Amino acid sequence: MKILIKEGHIIDPSEKLNKVGNILIEDGKVKSYPSDTKKLEKGPTIEVIDAQGMVVAPGFIDMHVHLREPGFEHKETIRTGCEAAAAGGFTSVVCMPNTNPVNDNASVTEYILLKARTEGIVNVFPIGAITKGEKGEILAEIGEMWEAGCVGISDDGCPVMNSRVMRHAMEYVKAFGIPVISHAEDIDLSGHGVMNEGFTSTVLGLRGIPNASEEVMVARDITLVELTAAHLHIAHVSTAGAVRLIRDAKKRGVRVTGEATPHHFTLTDRAILNYDTNAKVNPPIRSQKDVDAIREGLKDGTIDVIATDHAPHSEDEKKVEFDLAPFGISGLETALPLSLNLVKEGILTLPELIRKLTFNPAQIVRINRGTLRVGATADVVIFNPDKSITVDRNKFRSKGKNTPFHGWQLSGCVRYTIVGGKVVFSS
Ligand code: DOR
Does this model's pTM top 0.85? Predict the structure, then answer.
């Protein structure tokens, strides 16, 4: 089967491509960039996609997703999570280990990969836990998980509070060349906080989580990675201080990378003024000063990646008092239009944005994706950056309808998602 993508605006930061042109896909791979397509179009087994006015880019890679399976299939399954990813333009997702059982050994990794092969429509790359049961005490079976296919380790959802354990994890994981992804949070400082600590939490009478809760752990993990020379990736950066710490560490040559989520660079904690549990997330949505700093970090390259931290929960779980609701936002299906705002506002160019959604995450988790070079696996997204849309959570493919962006008017619509040369989503 061949696909000819015609006259699209091709943007591939990995190849420094930014031009109008054609792409031919054959046998699941990028075959060529033909200039004359007339003969090809007449072929019997070719699907022609008219991409005029659209952007054609490497399929997006979300390096921070919760697929919930095994164990929490009422929130999401590998199948529904992959469908949501495809609808959002993502051709690869990297899934976090806080499932039940936790992905802390090769059997769970193999189960996820088997399910993904049989039911998933996008590529799934698992992250293994740092510690057994994500309890922060004993290192998980990291070597076995790496052999089984894990592309990084993290106790995401829970921080590793014990610095000695974190140091050992960093020293050990170096042998496998994969990153340690830090959910940077001091749980003692967070206490029973449910939102950002500040003026809004005082007004609402809700317990706050201070910025320092994230920053002391970012500082600790940077210190530990300077000691161990591993690769540290800071997940869901939410504070100005964390951006500053990563920026300073990068200047010193420390091997640290960082990601930001669309909700953290779009919303402030005022989104909670109506006690909307759909905006309850960890780390919490912070102040305007923090949002501005994250945007600055995206602009100057301190923050390498945009990732969603897609954290689907069921409606019943979120429809409770603010204190009791679980943390998390369903993010896969709103990421592109929210991120395109950064381009509209002059913070990033379109190629810079696409790089943070493709090549950079591929480099960090070292997967052979995020490029449209000839011979590469044909994972492609085709989107219309200007088409206006209204976010409708009831139309989400994800089981998680928990979005604070329901009803928002945005621009940017995914038209085709192609994985390994097959169209898995079109609109
Ligand atoms: O808001 C969040 N939800 N933050 C996390 O770190 C975990 C995630 C979840 O698993 O629901």
Answer: yes
Atom number of ligand 1 nearest to Cα 66: 10
CATH of the domain at 358: 3.20.20.140
Look at the block and give the residue holding tokens 């943070």.
356
Q: Are strands 90-95 and 422-426 parallel, antiparallel or unpaired?
A: unpaired
Whole-number Å distance, alpha carbon 64 to ligand 1 midpoint, is: 10
N- to C-terminal Cα separation, the chain? 21
Minimum CA distance residue for ligand 1 atom 4 = 282
- Same structural domain, 126 and 259: yes
Cα separations in angstroms, 53 against 16, 236, 271:
20, 33, 34
Query: What is the residue whose two structure tokens read 């894990």?
Result: 150
CATH number of the domain that 383 lies in? 2.30.40.10
Residue from 50, 309, 316, 392 carrying the catalytic annotation: 309
Q: Which atom of ligand 1 is nearest to the CA of 96?
A: 10
Number of domains the chain is built from: 2
Write down which residue in 317, 344, 365 finishes a domain: 365
- Pocket-forming residues, ligand 1, beta carbon under 6 Å: 66, 98, 156-157, 183, 281-282, 311, 326-328
- Report residue 116 as tokens: 């993904």
Residue 43 has pLDDT above 80, yes or no: no
Specify whether the backbone of 407 is left (phi greater than 0), alpha (psi in -120 to 50) or beta: left
Do residues 47 and 65 share a domain?
A: no
Asked if 112 contacts 120 with a C-beta cutoff of 8 angstroms, the reply is no
What's the rounded Cα separation, in Å, for the pair 67 and 335?
16
Work out the number of other CB atoms within 10 angstroms of the CB of residue 324. Answer: 11
pLDDT in tens, 361-419: 999 999 999 999 999 999 999 999 999 999 999 999 999 999 999 999 999 999 999 99
Q: Tell me which of 327, 330, 403 to substitute to probe ligand 1's pocket, judged by most ligand atoms within 8 Å of the beta carbon.
A: 327
Longest dimension (CA), the chain: 68
pLDDT > 90? residue 39: no
Give me the amino acid identity at 54: M
Strand partners, 423: 418
Residues 177 and 128 in one domain: yes
Domain that holds residue 38: 2-56+376-426
191 residue type, one letter = G
